[in-house]
Amino acid sequence: MDKEPLEVLSCMGEPAHRANTPNRVIHSLDRDIDHFHQSGGSQMLGHDAVAQALVDHGVDTVFGVLGDGNLFIGENLQRQHGVNLVSATHEANAVCMAEGWAKATGRLGVATVTHGPGLTNTITALVEGVKNETPMLVVAGDTPIENEQHLQNLDQHALVVATGAGFQPVRNAQTISEDVSTAVRRAHAERRPIVVNIPLNIEWDEVEYEPRPPLNPPAVRLAPDPDQLETALGIVASSTRPVILAGRGAVKSEARDALIRLGDALGAPLATSLLGTGYFEGEPFNLGVHGTLSHQIAGETLAMADCLIVFGASLNFLTTDYQTLLAGKRVVQVDVNAGHIDRHVSVDAGVVGDAGVVAEAMIDLLTAAEHQPSSFRTADLERRIHEFDPAEAFEDKSYDGAVDPRTLTRRLDVGLPQDRQVVVDAGRFMLDALTMSVPNPEDLVTSHGFGAIGLGMSTAIGAAVARPTRPTVLCIGDGGYMMGGLTELSTAVHLGLDLIVIVYNDGSYGAEHIQLVTKGMDPAASLHEWPDFCAVAQSMGCQTAKIDSLDDIDGALEVVKNRKAGQPVLIEASTDPDVVSTIYGHHR
Hints:
Elements: H1 5-11, H2 14-19, H3 23-34, E1 43-45, H4 46-56, E2 61-64, H5 71-81, E3 84-87, H6 91-105, E4 109-113, H7 117-120, H8 123-131, E5 136-142, H9 156-163, E6 166-169, H10 176-190, E7 193-199, H11 200-203, E8 206-208, H12 226-237, E9 242-246, H13 248-253, H14 256-266, E10 270-272, E11 286-289, H15 296-304, E12 307-311, E13 330-335, E14 349-352, H16 355-368, H17 379-387, H18 405-415, E15 421-424, H19 430-433, E16 444-446, H20 456-466, E17 472-477, H21 478-495, E18 499-505, H22 510-518, H23 533-540, E19 543-547, H24 553-561, E20 569-574, E21 582-583, E22 586-587
Helix pairs in contact: 4-5, 4-10, 6-8, 6-20, 14-16, 20-21
Protein backbone atom coordinates (compact mmCIF):
# COMPACT_ATOMS: atom_id res chain seq x y z
CA MET A 1 0.00 0.00 0.00
CA ASP A 2 1.75 3.13 -1.27
CA LYS A 3 -1.07 5.57 -0.51
CA GLU A 4 -0.91 8.40 1.98
CA PRO A 5 -3.28 8.19 4.99
CA LEU A 6 -6.03 10.35 3.47
CA GLU A 7 -5.87 8.33 0.26
CA VAL A 8 -6.29 5.17 2.32
CA LEU A 9 -9.49 6.59 3.84
CA SER A 10 -10.72 7.61 0.40
CA CYS A 11 -10.18 4.12 -0.98
CA MET A 12 -12.15 2.46 1.80
CA GLY A 13 -15.11 4.84 1.45
CA GLU A 14 -14.65 7.19 4.38
CA PRO A 15 -18.26 8.44 4.83
CA ALA A 16 -19.71 4.94 5.06
CA HIS A 17 -16.88 3.84 7.33
CA ARG A 18 -17.35 6.77 9.68
CA ALA A 19 -21.10 6.30 9.75
CA ASN A 20 -20.53 2.99 11.49
CA THR A 21 -17.67 4.15 13.68
CA PRO A 22 -18.02 5.57 17.22
CA ASN A 23 -17.15 9.28 17.59
CA ARG A 24 -14.33 8.42 19.97
CA VAL A 25 -12.75 6.28 17.27
CA ILE A 26 -13.17 9.05 14.67
CA HIS A 27 -11.38 11.51 16.95
CA SER A 28 -8.60 8.95 17.52
CA LEU A 29 -8.40 8.43 13.78
CA ASP A 30 -7.99 12.16 13.17
CA ARG A 31 -5.34 12.30 15.85
CA ASP A 32 -3.53 9.33 14.37
CA ILE A 33 -3.50 10.94 10.92
CA ASP A 34 -1.79 13.99 12.42
CA HIS A 35 0.94 11.72 13.77
CA PHE A 36 1.21 9.31 10.81
CA HIS A 37 4.71 10.41 9.87
CA GLN A 38 6.08 10.91 13.37
CA SER A 39 8.57 8.39 14.65
CA GLY A 40 10.50 7.74 17.80
CA GLY A 41 9.27 7.21 21.35
CA SER A 42 7.09 4.40 22.63
CA GLN A 43 3.76 6.25 22.75
CA MET A 44 1.50 4.88 20.03
CA LEU A 45 -2.01 3.77 19.20
CA GLY A 46 -3.17 0.21 19.69
CA HIS A 47 -3.10 -0.88 16.04
CA ASP A 48 0.48 0.39 15.73
CA ALA A 49 1.38 -1.51 18.90
CA VAL A 50 0.03 -4.73 17.37
CA ALA A 51 2.20 -4.19 14.31
CA GLN A 52 5.22 -3.39 16.46
CA ALA A 53 4.71 -6.52 18.57
CA LEU A 54 4.59 -8.71 15.46
CA VAL A 55 7.77 -7.17 14.07
CA ASP A 56 9.48 -7.56 17.45
CA HIS A 57 8.90 -11.30 17.05
CA GLY A 58 10.53 -11.44 13.62
CA VAL A 59 7.44 -11.20 11.42
CA ASP A 60 8.44 -9.93 7.98
CA THR A 61 5.71 -11.42 5.76
CA VAL A 62 1.95 -11.24 6.33
CA PHE A 63 -0.87 -12.52 4.12
CA GLY A 64 -4.26 -10.91 4.46
CA VAL A 65 -7.49 -9.35 3.37
CA LEU A 66 -7.94 -5.90 4.89
CA GLY A 67 -11.18 -4.62 6.37
CA ASP A 68 -12.31 -2.25 9.11
CA GLY A 69 -11.02 -4.51 11.87
CA ASN A 70 -7.45 -4.91 10.64
CA LEU A 71 -6.88 -2.19 8.06
CA PHE A 72 -4.59 0.03 10.11
CA ILE A 73 -2.60 -2.88 11.52
CA GLY A 74 -1.80 -3.95 7.97
CA GLU A 75 -1.11 -0.41 6.83
CA ASN A 76 1.34 0.15 9.69
CA LEU A 77 3.11 -3.15 9.08
CA GLN A 78 3.78 -2.17 5.51
CA ARG A 79 4.48 1.56 5.83
CA GLN A 80 6.28 1.76 9.15
CA HIS A 81 8.08 -1.58 9.19
CA GLY A 82 8.47 -2.59 5.54
CA VAL A 83 6.71 -5.91 6.10
CA ASN A 84 5.79 -7.77 2.92
CA LEU A 85 2.00 -7.51 3.05
CA VAL A 86 0.56 -9.94 0.48
CA SER A 87 -3.08 -9.26 -0.34
CA ALA A 88 -5.35 -12.23 -1.03
CA THR A 89 -8.82 -12.13 -2.58
CA HIS A 90 -10.43 -14.25 0.15
CA GLU A 91 -9.67 -14.72 3.84
CA ALA A 92 -9.43 -18.51 3.66
CA ASN A 93 -6.81 -18.12 0.94
CA ALA A 94 -4.84 -15.67 3.07
CA VAL A 95 -4.63 -18.25 5.87
CA CYS A 96 -3.64 -21.00 3.42
CA MET A 97 -0.96 -18.73 1.97
CA ALA A 98 0.42 -18.26 5.46
CA GLU A 99 0.44 -22.01 5.94
CA GLY A 100 2.18 -22.66 2.62
CA TRP A 101 4.77 -20.05 3.57
CA ALA A 102 5.23 -21.62 6.99
CA LYS A 103 5.70 -25.09 5.51
CA ALA A 104 8.22 -23.82 2.98
CA THR A 105 10.25 -21.78 5.47
CA GLY A 106 9.81 -23.68 8.73
CA ARG A 107 8.92 -20.35 10.34
CA LEU A 108 5.76 -18.93 11.88
CA GLY A 109 3.14 -18.14 9.25
CA VAL A 110 1.06 -14.99 9.78
CA ALA A 111 -2.26 -13.95 8.26
CA THR A 112 -4.61 -11.11 9.09
CA VAL A 113 -8.38 -10.77 8.59
CA THR A 114 -11.13 -8.46 9.71
CA HIS A 115 -13.98 -9.23 12.09
CA GLY A 116 -17.24 -11.12 11.53
CA PRO A 117 -17.42 -12.54 7.99
CA GLY A 118 -13.70 -11.95 7.59
CA LEU A 119 -13.09 -14.51 10.33
CA THR A 120 -15.92 -16.89 9.42
CA ASN A 121 -14.42 -17.15 5.94
CA THR A 122 -11.26 -18.69 7.42
CA ILE A 123 -12.89 -21.72 9.09
CA THR A 124 -11.86 -24.44 6.61
CA ALA A 125 -8.34 -23.03 6.36
CA LEU A 126 -8.01 -22.90 10.15
CA VAL A 127 -9.02 -26.55 10.43
CA GLU A 128 -6.46 -27.40 7.74
CA GLY A 129 -3.77 -25.71 9.82
CA VAL A 130 -4.90 -27.55 12.94
CA LYS A 131 -4.87 -30.91 11.15
CA ASN A 132 -1.37 -30.24 9.84
CA GLU A 133 -0.11 -28.96 13.21
CA THR A 134 1.23 -25.83 11.56
CA PRO A 135 2.34 -23.00 13.89
CA MET A 136 0.57 -19.87 12.64
CA LEU A 137 -0.89 -16.60 13.84
CA VAL A 138 -4.15 -15.22 12.48
CA VAL A 139 -4.45 -11.59 13.55
CA ALA A 140 -8.18 -10.91 13.57
CA GLY A 141 -10.03 -7.72 14.29
CA ASP A 142 -13.18 -7.86 16.40
CA THR A 143 -16.12 -5.48 16.57
CA PRO A 144 -16.00 -2.71 19.21
CA ILE A 145 -16.92 -4.06 22.62
CA GLU A 146 -19.40 -1.27 23.28
CA ASN A 147 -21.29 -1.80 20.00
CA GLU A 148 -23.31 -4.95 20.63
CA GLN A 149 -25.57 -4.29 17.62
CA HIS A 150 -22.73 -4.06 15.13
CA LEU A 151 -23.80 -5.98 12.02
CA GLN A 152 -20.63 -8.11 12.10
CA ASN A 153 -20.71 -8.91 15.80
CA LEU A 154 -20.55 -12.60 16.78
CA ASP A 155 -18.91 -14.83 19.35
CA GLN A 156 -15.50 -15.10 17.69
CA HIS A 157 -14.12 -17.15 20.58
CA ALA A 158 -16.70 -19.90 20.11
CA LEU A 159 -16.12 -19.88 16.36
CA VAL A 160 -12.36 -20.31 16.66
CA VAL A 161 -12.49 -22.94 19.40
CA ALA A 162 -14.79 -25.07 17.24
CA THR A 163 -12.03 -25.36 14.61
CA GLY A 164 -9.47 -26.65 17.09
CA ALA A 165 -7.37 -23.51 16.73
CA GLY A 166 -6.25 -21.52 19.75
CA PHE A 167 -7.80 -18.22 20.77
CA GLN A 168 -5.70 -15.45 22.28
CA PRO A 169 -7.67 -12.31 23.21
CA VAL A 170 -5.98 -8.95 23.46
CA ARG A 171 -7.32 -7.89 26.84
CA ASN A 172 -6.69 -4.16 26.61
CA ALA A 173 -4.31 -1.72 24.96
CA GLN A 174 -1.71 -2.01 27.72
CA THR A 175 -1.43 -5.80 27.28
CA ILE A 176 -1.00 -5.81 23.48
CA SER A 177 2.71 -6.67 23.43
CA GLU A 178 2.26 -9.31 26.13
CA ASP A 179 -0.75 -10.92 24.44
CA VAL A 180 0.87 -11.02 21.00
CA SER A 181 4.01 -12.50 22.53
CA THR A 182 1.93 -15.13 24.30
CA ALA A 183 0.20 -16.01 21.03
CA VAL A 184 3.55 -16.49 19.27
CA ARG A 185 4.78 -18.77 22.02
CA ARG A 186 1.54 -20.73 22.02
CA ALA A 187 1.67 -21.23 18.25
CA HIS A 188 5.10 -22.83 18.52
CA ALA A 189 4.43 -24.82 21.68
CA GLU A 190 0.96 -26.05 20.68
CA ARG A 191 1.82 -26.45 16.98
CA ARG A 192 -1.44 -25.04 15.68
CA PRO A 193 -2.90 -21.74 14.47
CA ILE A 194 -3.57 -19.17 17.19
CA VAL A 195 -6.10 -16.44 16.48
CA VAL A 196 -5.11 -13.12 18.08
CA ASN A 197 -8.45 -11.37 18.70
CA ILE A 198 -8.32 -7.56 18.78
CA PRO A 199 -11.48 -5.49 19.42
CA LEU A 200 -11.54 -2.43 17.22
CA ASN A 201 -11.88 0.03 20.12
CA ILE A 202 -8.60 -1.23 21.62
CA GLU A 203 -6.83 -0.47 18.35
CA TRP A 204 -7.50 3.24 18.88
CA ASP A 205 -6.47 3.47 22.53
CA GLU A 206 -3.14 5.12 23.29
CA VAL A 207 -0.53 2.90 24.84
CA GLU A 208 2.97 3.24 26.21
CA TYR A 209 4.53 0.39 24.30
CA GLU A 210 6.83 -1.96 26.19
CA PRO A 211 8.41 -4.64 23.98
CA ARG A 212 8.58 -8.29 24.98
CA PRO A 213 11.66 -10.38 24.26
CA PRO A 214 11.41 -12.35 21.01
CA LEU A 215 10.95 -16.09 21.09
CA ASN A 216 14.00 -18.17 20.23
CA PRO A 217 12.72 -21.76 20.25
CA PRO A 218 15.51 -24.07 21.39
CA ALA A 219 16.35 -27.04 19.19
CA VAL A 220 14.64 -30.13 20.58
CA ARG A 221 17.06 -33.06 20.79
CA LEU A 222 15.11 -35.11 23.30
CA ALA A 223 16.97 -38.23 24.48
CA PRO A 224 14.92 -41.40 25.02
CA ASP A 225 13.91 -42.87 28.36
CA PRO A 226 16.20 -45.89 28.98
CA ASP A 227 13.30 -48.20 29.84
CA GLN A 228 11.35 -47.24 26.74
CA LEU A 229 14.45 -47.70 24.61
CA GLU A 230 15.21 -51.12 26.10
CA THR A 231 11.67 -52.38 25.47
CA ALA A 232 11.67 -51.11 21.90
CA LEU A 233 15.11 -52.47 21.12
CA GLY A 234 14.14 -55.90 22.44
CA ILE A 235 11.39 -56.04 19.82
CA VAL A 236 13.59 -54.67 17.07
CA ALA A 237 16.56 -56.92 17.73
CA SER A 238 14.44 -60.07 17.80
CA SER A 239 12.80 -59.39 14.44
CA THR A 240 13.90 -61.28 11.34
CA ARG A 241 12.34 -59.05 8.68
CA PRO A 242 12.44 -55.45 9.97
CA VAL A 243 11.59 -52.30 7.98
CA ILE A 244 12.44 -48.71 8.94
CA LEU A 245 9.78 -46.07 8.21
CA ALA A 246 10.72 -42.38 8.30
CA GLY A 247 8.25 -39.47 8.29
CA ARG A 248 8.49 -35.69 8.31
CA GLY A 249 9.55 -35.79 11.97
CA ALA A 250 12.68 -37.71 10.97
CA VAL A 251 13.29 -35.19 8.19
CA LYS A 252 13.10 -32.28 10.63
CA SER A 253 15.47 -34.13 12.94
CA GLU A 254 18.01 -34.51 10.09
CA ALA A 255 18.16 -38.19 11.00
CA ARG A 256 18.80 -39.57 7.50
CA ASP A 257 22.39 -40.75 8.01
CA ALA A 258 21.58 -42.29 11.39
CA LEU A 259 18.57 -44.14 9.98
CA ILE A 260 20.59 -45.45 7.04
CA ARG A 261 23.23 -46.80 9.43
CA LEU A 262 20.50 -48.29 11.63
CA GLY A 263 19.06 -49.96 8.54
CA ASP A 264 22.49 -51.43 7.79
CA ALA A 265 22.82 -52.69 11.37
CA LEU A 266 19.39 -54.34 11.27
CA GLY A 267 19.40 -55.48 7.67
CA ALA A 268 16.21 -53.45 7.26
CA PRO A 269 14.87 -51.98 4.01
CA LEU A 270 13.94 -48.29 4.19
CA ALA A 271 10.59 -46.63 3.54
CA THR A 272 8.98 -43.23 4.11
CA SER A 273 5.61 -41.70 4.73
CA LEU A 274 4.29 -39.38 2.02
CA LEU A 275 5.83 -36.36 3.78
CA GLY A 276 9.18 -38.14 3.74
CA THR A 277 9.07 -38.57 -0.04
CA GLY A 278 12.55 -38.95 -1.51
CA TYR A 279 14.30 -39.06 1.87
CA PHE A 280 16.23 -42.26 1.05
CA GLU A 281 16.67 -41.56 -2.65
CA GLY A 282 19.74 -43.35 -3.99
CA GLU A 283 19.85 -46.00 -1.26
CA PRO A 284 19.86 -49.54 -2.71
CA PHE A 285 17.12 -50.81 -0.37
CA ASN A 286 14.83 -47.80 -0.63
CA LEU A 287 11.22 -48.98 -0.91
CA GLY A 288 9.81 -45.49 -1.38
CA VAL A 289 6.45 -44.51 0.07
CA HIS A 290 4.86 -46.77 2.69
CA GLY A 291 1.08 -46.74 2.35
CA THR A 292 -1.58 -46.31 -0.30
CA LEU A 293 1.04 -45.07 -2.77
CA SER A 294 3.40 -48.04 -2.33
CA HIS A 295 4.57 -49.57 -5.58
CA GLN A 296 4.38 -53.28 -6.32
CA ILE A 297 7.87 -54.27 -5.10
CA ALA A 298 7.43 -52.25 -1.93
CA GLY A 299 4.00 -53.74 -1.29
CA GLU A 300 5.29 -57.29 -1.58
CA THR A 301 8.26 -56.56 0.68
CA LEU A 302 6.22 -54.76 3.30
CA ALA A 303 3.74 -57.62 3.39
CA MET A 304 6.56 -59.99 4.39
CA ALA A 305 7.98 -57.76 7.14
CA ASP A 306 7.52 -58.77 10.78
CA CYS A 307 8.57 -55.49 12.43
CA LEU A 308 8.08 -51.83 11.57
CA ILE A 309 10.31 -49.24 13.27
CA VAL A 310 8.68 -45.84 12.79
CA PHE A 311 10.53 -42.54 13.18
CA GLY A 312 8.49 -39.33 13.10
CA ALA A 313 5.52 -40.62 11.09
CA SER A 314 1.92 -40.49 12.25
CA LEU A 315 0.75 -43.95 11.07
CA ASN A 316 -2.53 -42.54 9.79
CA PHE A 317 -4.84 -44.60 7.61
CA LEU A 318 -3.06 -43.55 4.41
CA THR A 319 0.43 -44.36 5.69
CA THR A 320 -0.76 -47.77 6.88
CA ASP A 321 -3.11 -48.38 3.91
CA TYR A 322 -6.05 -48.63 6.31
CA GLN A 323 -3.82 -50.63 8.71
CA THR A 324 -3.45 -53.51 6.24
CA LEU A 325 0.31 -52.90 6.12
CA LEU A 326 0.53 -53.45 9.88
CA ALA A 327 -0.95 -56.96 9.78
CA GLY A 328 1.42 -59.55 11.25
CA LYS A 329 3.91 -56.95 12.40
CA ARG A 330 5.14 -55.67 15.72
CA VAL A 331 5.37 -51.88 15.66
CA VAL A 332 7.83 -49.60 17.41
CA GLN A 333 7.04 -45.88 17.16
CA VAL A 334 9.54 -43.12 17.89
CA ASP A 335 8.38 -39.53 18.08
CA VAL A 336 9.48 -36.36 19.84
CA ASN A 337 5.82 -35.70 20.69
CA ALA A 338 4.37 -38.23 23.14
CA GLY A 339 0.88 -37.36 21.93
CA HIS A 340 1.67 -38.78 18.48
CA ILE A 341 2.45 -42.26 19.80
CA ASP A 342 -0.57 -44.60 19.78
CA ARG A 343 -2.57 -41.74 18.27
CA HIS A 344 -3.93 -43.59 15.24
CA VAL A 345 -2.98 -47.21 15.88
CA SER A 346 -1.91 -49.24 18.91
CA VAL A 347 1.81 -49.95 18.87
CA ASP A 348 3.86 -52.54 20.72
CA ALA A 349 6.39 -50.05 22.03
CA GLY A 350 6.72 -46.28 22.01
CA VAL A 351 9.83 -44.19 22.50
CA VAL A 352 9.54 -40.47 23.14
CA GLY A 353 12.61 -38.81 21.70
CA ASP A 354 14.29 -37.14 18.77
CA ALA A 355 14.53 -39.47 15.75
CA GLY A 356 18.23 -38.94 15.22
CA VAL A 357 19.13 -39.29 18.91
CA VAL A 358 17.07 -42.47 19.29
CA ALA A 359 18.51 -44.00 16.12
CA GLU A 360 22.07 -43.30 17.30
CA ALA A 361 21.28 -44.81 20.71
CA MET A 362 19.89 -47.94 19.05
CA ILE A 363 23.00 -48.28 16.88
CA ASP A 364 25.29 -47.99 19.92
CA LEU A 365 23.37 -50.66 21.84
CA LEU A 366 23.21 -53.02 18.85
CA THR A 367 26.95 -52.60 18.29
CA ALA A 368 27.71 -53.25 21.95
CA ALA A 369 25.61 -56.42 21.81
CA GLU A 370 27.37 -57.50 18.58
CA HIS A 371 23.99 -57.79 16.91
CA GLN A 372 24.04 -59.34 13.44
CA PRO A 373 21.81 -57.85 10.71
CA SER A 374 18.87 -59.86 9.44
CA SER A 375 18.87 -61.49 6.02
CA PHE A 376 15.86 -59.47 4.87
CA ARG A 377 18.05 -57.44 2.55
CA THR A 378 18.87 -59.71 -0.36
CA ALA A 379 20.62 -59.26 -3.68
CA ASP A 380 17.37 -60.22 -5.40
CA LEU A 381 15.43 -57.49 -3.56
CA GLU A 382 18.08 -54.91 -4.44
CA ARG A 383 17.92 -55.95 -8.10
CA ARG A 384 14.12 -55.80 -8.22
CA ILE A 385 14.06 -52.34 -6.66
CA HIS A 386 16.70 -51.11 -9.09
CA GLU A 387 14.91 -52.54 -12.15
CA PHE A 388 11.39 -51.47 -11.19
CA ASP A 389 9.84 -49.11 -13.77
CA PRO A 390 6.57 -47.46 -12.66
CA ALA A 391 5.59 -46.84 -16.29
CA GLU A 392 5.43 -50.60 -16.89
CA ALA A 393 3.16 -51.22 -13.91
CA PHE A 394 -0.03 -50.03 -15.59
CA GLU A 395 -1.75 -49.94 -18.97
CA ASP A 396 -1.88 -46.44 -20.41
CA LYS A 397 -5.48 -45.40 -21.16
CA SER A 398 -4.82 -42.17 -23.03
CA TYR A 399 -6.69 -41.39 -26.24
CA ASP A 400 -7.17 -38.42 -28.51
CA GLY A 401 -9.14 -36.05 -26.29
CA ALA A 402 -7.94 -37.21 -22.88
CA VAL A 403 -4.66 -38.32 -21.32
CA ASP A 404 -4.10 -40.93 -18.64
CA PRO A 405 -3.20 -38.92 -15.51
CA ARG A 406 -0.57 -41.51 -14.55
CA THR A 407 1.26 -41.13 -17.84
CA LEU A 408 0.80 -37.37 -17.73
CA THR A 409 2.31 -37.13 -14.26
CA ARG A 410 5.30 -39.27 -15.16
CA ARG A 411 6.04 -37.30 -18.31
CA LEU A 412 5.74 -34.00 -16.45
CA ASP A 413 7.84 -35.35 -13.59
CA VAL A 414 10.75 -35.83 -15.97
CA GLY A 415 10.19 -32.76 -18.13
CA LEU A 416 9.44 -30.02 -15.58
CA PRO A 417 12.29 -28.13 -13.84
CA GLN A 418 13.90 -30.46 -11.33
CA ASP A 419 14.96 -27.83 -8.79
CA ARG A 420 11.35 -27.30 -7.76
CA GLN A 421 8.86 -27.46 -4.97
CA VAL A 422 5.59 -29.28 -5.58
CA VAL A 423 2.22 -28.39 -4.07
CA VAL A 424 -0.68 -30.83 -4.40
CA ASP A 425 -4.31 -29.93 -3.82
CA ALA A 426 -6.90 -32.51 -2.69
CA GLY A 427 -9.08 -34.50 -5.07
CA ARG A 428 -9.26 -37.70 -7.05
CA PHE A 429 -6.29 -36.66 -9.21
CA MET A 430 -3.97 -36.44 -6.20
CA LEU A 431 -3.26 -40.18 -6.14
CA ASP A 432 -1.40 -39.66 -9.40
CA ALA A 433 -0.01 -36.18 -8.74
CA LEU A 434 1.54 -37.25 -5.43
CA THR A 435 3.89 -39.59 -7.29
CA MET A 436 5.74 -36.55 -8.66
CA SER A 437 9.26 -36.43 -7.29
CA VAL A 438 10.86 -33.60 -5.30
CA PRO A 439 14.53 -32.82 -4.56
CA ASN A 440 13.95 -33.04 -0.81
CA PRO A 441 10.99 -34.07 1.36
CA GLU A 442 10.46 -30.46 2.48
CA ASP A 443 9.86 -29.55 -1.17
CA LEU A 444 6.53 -31.41 -1.12
CA VAL A 445 3.79 -29.18 0.30
CA THR A 446 0.30 -30.64 0.66
CA SER A 447 -3.06 -29.04 1.41
CA HIS A 448 -5.28 -32.02 2.12
CA GLY A 449 -5.04 -32.41 5.90
CA PHE A 450 -8.79 -31.73 6.15
CA GLY A 451 -9.63 -33.47 2.88
CA ALA A 452 -10.86 -30.17 1.44
CA ILE A 453 -10.39 -29.35 -2.23
CA GLY A 454 -9.55 -25.83 -3.37
CA LEU A 455 -6.82 -24.93 -0.87
CA GLY A 456 -3.90 -25.73 -3.16
CA MET A 457 -3.57 -22.50 -5.15
CA SER A 458 -3.29 -20.28 -2.10
CA THR A 459 -0.97 -22.76 -0.38
CA ALA A 460 1.22 -22.74 -3.50
CA ILE A 461 1.29 -18.93 -3.57
CA GLY A 462 2.49 -18.87 0.04
CA ALA A 463 5.19 -21.44 -0.73
CA ALA A 464 6.23 -19.52 -3.86
CA VAL A 465 6.50 -16.26 -1.91
CA ALA A 466 8.72 -18.11 0.56
CA ARG A 467 11.01 -19.46 -2.18
CA PRO A 468 10.90 -16.93 -5.01
CA THR A 469 14.05 -18.18 -6.74
CA ARG A 470 12.67 -21.68 -7.36
CA PRO A 471 9.76 -22.76 -9.56
CA THR A 472 6.66 -23.92 -7.72
CA VAL A 473 4.61 -26.64 -9.41
CA LEU A 474 0.96 -26.80 -8.36
CA CYS A 475 -1.08 -29.89 -9.20
CA ILE A 476 -4.80 -29.22 -8.84
CA GLY A 477 -8.07 -30.69 -10.05
CA ASP A 478 -10.59 -28.71 -12.07
CA GLY A 479 -13.11 -28.66 -9.20
CA GLY A 480 -10.56 -27.41 -6.69
CA TYR A 481 -9.27 -24.88 -9.18
CA MET A 482 -12.76 -23.43 -9.66
CA MET A 483 -13.54 -23.53 -5.95
CA GLY A 484 -10.47 -21.78 -4.60
CA GLY A 485 -7.84 -21.40 -7.29
CA LEU A 486 -9.17 -19.32 -10.14
CA THR A 487 -9.52 -16.03 -8.27
CA GLU A 488 -6.09 -16.24 -6.64
CA LEU A 489 -4.36 -16.90 -9.96
CA SER A 490 -4.50 -13.14 -10.49
CA THR A 491 -2.64 -12.74 -7.20
CA ALA A 492 0.15 -14.99 -8.51
CA VAL A 493 0.33 -12.87 -11.66
CA HIS A 494 0.39 -9.63 -9.65
CA LEU A 495 3.23 -10.99 -7.49
CA GLY A 496 5.18 -12.18 -10.53
CA LEU A 497 5.61 -15.69 -9.12
CA ASP A 498 7.41 -18.51 -10.90
CA LEU A 499 4.32 -20.71 -10.61
CA ILE A 500 3.50 -23.62 -12.92
CA VAL A 501 -0.11 -24.76 -12.51
CA ILE A 502 -1.16 -28.19 -13.77
CA VAL A 503 -4.96 -28.51 -13.91
CA TYR A 504 -6.15 -32.11 -14.16
CA ASN A 505 -9.48 -31.42 -15.86
CA ASP A 506 -12.01 -34.25 -16.07
CA GLY A 507 -14.95 -31.84 -16.26
CA SER A 508 -16.42 -33.07 -13.01
CA TYR A 509 -16.04 -33.46 -9.32
CA GLY A 510 -14.18 -36.68 -10.02
CA ALA A 511 -14.40 -38.50 -6.69
CA GLU A 512 -18.17 -38.01 -6.58
CA HIS A 513 -18.52 -38.86 -10.27
CA ILE A 514 -16.88 -42.24 -9.95
CA GLN A 515 -18.95 -43.12 -6.88
CA LEU A 516 -22.15 -42.47 -8.81
CA VAL A 517 -20.89 -44.50 -11.76
CA THR A 518 -19.79 -47.38 -9.52
CA LYS A 519 -23.26 -47.56 -7.95
CA GLY A 520 -24.95 -47.53 -11.35
CA MET A 521 -26.42 -44.07 -10.82
CA ASP A 522 -26.64 -41.10 -13.19
CA PRO A 523 -23.43 -39.05 -12.77
CA ALA A 524 -24.89 -35.94 -14.41
CA ALA A 525 -24.95 -34.02 -11.12
CA SER A 526 -21.16 -34.35 -10.84
CA LEU A 527 -20.44 -33.03 -14.34
CA HIS A 528 -19.63 -29.39 -15.06
CA GLU A 529 -19.07 -27.25 -18.12
CA TRP A 530 -16.21 -25.04 -17.00
CA PRO A 531 -14.99 -21.95 -18.82
CA ASP A 532 -11.95 -22.20 -21.05
CA PHE A 533 -9.26 -22.30 -18.35
CA CYS A 534 -6.49 -21.28 -20.72
CA ALA A 535 -8.44 -18.31 -22.10
CA VAL A 536 -9.27 -17.07 -18.61
CA ALA A 537 -5.67 -17.51 -17.46
CA GLN A 538 -4.40 -15.64 -20.51
CA SER A 539 -6.73 -12.75 -19.71
CA MET A 540 -5.15 -12.60 -16.26
CA GLY A 541 -1.64 -12.46 -17.71
CA CYS A 542 -0.53 -16.11 -17.67
CA GLN A 543 1.19 -18.16 -20.31
CA THR A 544 -0.82 -21.28 -21.10
CA ALA A 545 -0.78 -24.67 -22.80
CA LYS A 546 -3.51 -27.23 -23.48
CA ILE A 547 -2.99 -31.00 -23.34
CA ASP A 548 -5.65 -33.11 -25.05
CA SER A 549 -3.39 -36.02 -26.03
CA LEU A 550 0.03 -37.40 -25.27
CA ASP A 551 1.34 -35.59 -28.34
CA ASP A 552 0.61 -32.24 -26.65
CA ILE A 553 2.81 -32.85 -23.60
CA ASP A 554 6.09 -31.92 -25.28
CA GLY A 555 4.60 -28.66 -26.49
CA ALA A 556 3.42 -27.81 -22.98
CA LEU A 557 6.85 -28.55 -21.58
CA GLU A 558 8.34 -26.27 -24.23
CA VAL A 559 6.10 -23.44 -22.98
CA VAL A 560 7.41 -24.05 -19.47
CA LYS A 561 11.00 -24.15 -20.67
CA ASN A 562 10.63 -20.81 -22.47
CA ARG A 563 8.42 -19.13 -19.87
CA LYS A 564 8.96 -15.45 -19.21
CA ALA A 565 10.34 -14.38 -15.87
CA GLY A 566 7.63 -13.31 -13.48
CA GLN A 567 4.78 -14.78 -15.54
CA PRO A 568 2.96 -17.87 -14.20
CA VAL A 569 2.15 -20.75 -16.55
CA LEU A 570 -1.12 -22.68 -16.56
CA ILE A 571 -1.33 -26.09 -18.24
CA GLU A 572 -4.79 -27.57 -18.68
CA ALA A 573 -4.76 -31.35 -19.17
CA SER A 574 -7.95 -33.10 -20.24
CA THR A 575 -8.62 -36.40 -18.46
CA ASP A 576 -11.54 -38.85 -18.63
CA PRO A 577 -13.87 -38.88 -15.59
CA ASP A 578 -14.97 -42.44 -16.38
CA VAL A 579 -11.47 -43.92 -16.35
CA VAL A 580 -10.80 -45.33 -12.89
CA SER A 581 -7.26 -44.33 -12.07
CA THR A 582 -5.05 -46.90 -10.43
CA ILE A 583 -1.68 -46.64 -8.78
CA TYR A 584 0.88 -49.09 -10.17
CA GLY A 585 -1.98 -51.30 -11.36
CA HIS A 586 -3.75 -51.46 -7.99
CA HIS A 587 -7.07 -49.75 -7.28
CA ARG A 588 -6.91 -47.24 -4.44
